[in-house]
Amino acid sequence: MLPRPSWLDSLLARLGFTQWVKELRALLWRKPGGESLDSQPEARSQQLQSPPTESTMPKKAKSQKTSRPQRAKTPKRTAKPAAKKAAAKRGSSATKKTGASRAATAEAVKQLVDALQAHPQQKGLVSAGQQQKDQLLRSLIPLYLARSLGLEVTSGTTSRFWSKFGVSYAAPNAAKALRIHTGYASDTKKGRAITAKGVRYVEDAIARG
């Protein structure tokens, strides 16, 4: 860019070269494409002053929603076939044992009732158990009848035996009476068995009527 001092302009104007200088300046300040260099600052100023439009504004990147990682579903624990079979086998064996125990108790009660009916002191034995609220006596009478039968008499058997004659006698009470009063019954391989002391106790109760 050439300096343009004011004194040079005044000198050239006096000599009559003003128009020639203007044409020369116009030639020097023109770009090869024909556009004047003086127009660039104006275009730049207009570009800076003009407000940004939607086309010139940078587009915001769309915010992507981050999805939470889903927890993997834990498979339900299922019992193994072997465990199921073992449990079923235990259940069936327990059921069989319960059924066998009930059948044995029913058979034992039947034999005791038959032995009572064949006993000469049938009425005395029944009335002693019904009228006298003696738990030891009620526990000993079935053992007294089972002496010659070789029969195992449990507390459940005693309870069911007395239920045949309208006497409510719980199995735990039958076992407790023999446990508290020692010497009247003894433990054998086949269960409880009445002793001589127990026999005398029963016969004394029948005699008292």
Main β-sheet, in a few words?
Answer: 2 strands, antiparallel
Low-confidence stretches: 35-50
Helical percentage: 55-70%
Identify the strand order in the major beta sheet.
1-2
Task: Output the CATH class name of the domain at 108-208.
Answer: Mainly Alpha
* Cα shape: rod-shaped
* CATH topology grouping of the domain at 108-208: Arc Repressor Mutant, subunit A
Architecture (CATH level 2) name of the domain at 108-208: Orthogonal Bundle
Please give the count of helices: 9
What amount of the residues lies in strands? under 5%
What is the arithmetic mean of pLDDT? Answer: 76
Question: How are helices and strands ordered from N to C?
Answer: HHHHHHHHEEH
- Over the alpha carbons, how many angstroms does the gyration radius reach? 61 Å
Number of strands: 2
Question: Summarize this, please?
Answer:
By secondary structure, the protein is mainly α.
Report on the architecture of this protein.
By secondary structure, the protein is mostly helical. Among the domains are: 8-40, no CATH class; 108-208, Orthogonal Bundle (Arc Repressor Mutant, subunit A), CATH 1.10.10. 58% of the residues lie in helices and 4% in strands. A hairpin with a 2-residue loop joins β1 and β2 (191-194). α6 (135-145) packs across α8 (171-180) and α6 crosses α9. The longest helix is centred in the middle third of the chain and has 37 residues, at 81-117. The radius of gyration is 61 Å and the shape is rod-shaped. The model is unreliable at 35-50 (pLDDT under 50).
